[in-house]
Specification:
Largest sheet: 2 strands, antiparallel
Number of strands: 2
Radius of gyration: 28 Å
CATH class of the domain at 49-152: Mainly Alpha
CATH superfamily of the domain at 49-152: ProQ/FinO domain
Shape: elongated
Strand order of the largest sheet: 1-2
Structural class: mainly alpha
Amino acid sequence: MGFEQLAALKEQLAKQAKAAPRAKTRRAPRKASARPAKTVSEPAKPVDPVRQAIAKLQKRFPQTFPKNPAPKVPLKIGIFEDLVQQAQEIGLTESVLRDAIRTWCRGTRYWTSLVEGAPRVDLAGQETGHVALADANRAQQLQAHRAARAQSQPATAPKSN
């Protein structure tokens, strides 16, 4: 193909591109990201309100609700009542707060923080008492029960937290 033929072909392609509707023109491909792109037909994933509530608590009270990998700290007995008083400021309902505290306090990460004599903290992160022997023993029982349950389940089953 000669230079003149290439120039004529370029002009012809330019005319076709102008005449073609915009929807059919393709953009340059984007760089691949770690996450796959969402398609239009894919429904949005619902966000767990308990996770949202815990995130709000972590943002508002970082000393009391530390983010992973920092160890959790034993919470003050009656901290739920303190949170209910601030529920509107935080933007959470009482039932969502109850579920968030229940979820926060039932994991292995929290149970390992319940050691006899460890300081309990209030919403400001200030020490307000200590973990009693009965609370520490209960946390150890819960951990042992979860470990026994995990061993009795098949290896392919997902473990719950």
